[in-house]
Amino acid sequence: MKKIQGSIFMLCIFFFVSVATASLSRDHNSFQTTPKFVFKPDGKNVFNNLLNAKDFQNYPAILKDTNINKARLAAVLSVEGALYAGSIATLSMAWYNNYQQTSFHFFNDLNDWMLMDKMGHLTASYYIGRIGYSTLRWSGVNETKSIWYGGFLGSLYLLNVEVLDGFSEKWGFSISDFATNTIGSFMFIGQQLGWHEQRFIMKFSFHPTDYAQYRPDLLGSNFSEQILKDYNGQTAWLSGNISSFLPKKSKFPKWINIAFGYGAEGMLGGTTNPSEYKGNHLPEFKRYHKFLLTADIDFTRIPTKSKALKAIFTVLNFIKIPFPAIEFNTNSGKNIELHPFYF
To answer: Do both 161 and 29 map to the same domain?
Structure first.
C-alpha cells in the first residue's frame, strides 16, 4: 500500500506541473497535436510499420532535435529530476530506513487488496507517462520521441520504487507491480502512436466506507487518509470517448464518454481479513469484486479558448464525475445493483 501512496504523491506533483506548462503553451498544449511525422498502420503488420517509421530509425538523442526550445527542455528536465530525486530520497528516509535491508529478492503480492493496488500502479504509470509526453512536446521535442521518452517516464520512476522494495526485508521486487506499471505506460504509448490522441483514459473516484472504522491504522483515520488508504472506497475507471470512433461529420457530443469501473469491497487486510484488531473482535465481511458501467465526461474535449479553463478541465479530468451506474458484483445475493449516482 505504501508504494502506491508514493506514486500518487509523485503523480500529483507531475500532474500540476503539466497543467502549468500546458497553460503557457500555444502549440503543444494538446494530446491531439498533429505531428510532422504521422504513423499510418496498414492493418497487416503494425509492428513492422513502427520499426520502419522514418522518425524511429537511427533513434537520436532528444537534444539533437532542431526544433527544441532548450530553455523549456532544461526547465522540464530540471524540475522532473528534482522531483524524482526528492521523492526517492523521501521514501528512503521516511519509509525504507525503518525496515532492515537485505539482499535483492522478489515478492509475490498479486493477490493483495483484490487487484486494487495494481489499478493504482497502472493509473499512476499512465498519467506520469502522459505528463512526460506533454512536457516534452511543450519543449519542442517531436511527437515520436516525446511518446517514447515521455511515455515510459512512469514505468522508469516506479521501477526505482520496486528496486528499493527488492532490498527491503518486509517486501521485495514485485513482478506484478512491474507488469502493471508497464501496461500503464503502453496504454498511453499505444494510443498516441496509433491515434495521436487518448481515446481511453484512466480516472479515479472515491466514496467513504464503513470499513475504515475497524482498522483506522491501515485504512485511514480521517477522510484525507482514507482517499489513499481505503481501497474499499476506491474505483478505477477506464473512460472511453464515443465520438472518437464515429465519423468526423457526426454531431454526437465530443465530450460524452462511456466508463467501465472496477472496485472491491469487504477488505480489512491485504489478502485475508483478520478476526480481531487490538484485542477487539472484528465482524466478518465477504470480500468481493465490483464491475461498473456508467456515463462520463471528458472535460478536455469541451471547446474553450480560455487557457484557465483548459487547465481546470485538465485537473478535473482525472476525477470520475458521479453518474447513474449499474454494478455487477460477486457478492452473493446482490449480483446486480443500480446506483442513482455512483462516485
So the answer is: yes
Residue pLDDT, tens place only, 160-217: 999 999 999 988 999 999 999 999 999 999 999 999 999 999 999 999 999 999 999 9
Q: How far is CA 179 from CA 157, 163, 185, in A?
A: 14, 14, 10
Specify whether 310 is located in the same domain as 216.
yes
pLDDT tens digits for range 88-123: 888 887 778 888 999 999 999 999 999 999 999 999
Which cell numbers in the block locate residue 246?
464515429
Q: Identify which of 334, 239, 340, 229 has the alpha carbon closest to the alpha carbon of residue 288.
A: 334
- pTM over 0.85? The answer is no
The cell 472496477 sits on which residue? 262
* 12 in the same domain as 134: yes
Last residue of a domain, which of 149, 175, 198? 198
SS (H, E, C) the chain: CHHHHHHHHHHHHHHHHHHHHHHHCCCCCCCCCCCCCCCCCCCCCHHHHHHHCCCCCCCCCHHHCCCCCHHHHHHHHHHHHHHHHHHHHHHHHHCHHHCCECCCCECCCCCHHHHHHHHHHHHHHHHHHHHHHHHHHHCCCCHHHHHHHHHCHHHHHHHHHHHHHHCECCCCECHHHHHHHHHHHHHHHHHHHHHCCCCEEEEEEECCCCHHHHCHHHHCCCHHHHHHHCHHHEEEEEEEECHHHCCCCCCCCCCEEEEEEEEEECCCCCCCCCCEECCEECCCCCCEEEEEEEEEECHHHCCCCCHHHHHHHHHHCCECCCEEEEEEECCCCCCEEEEEEEC
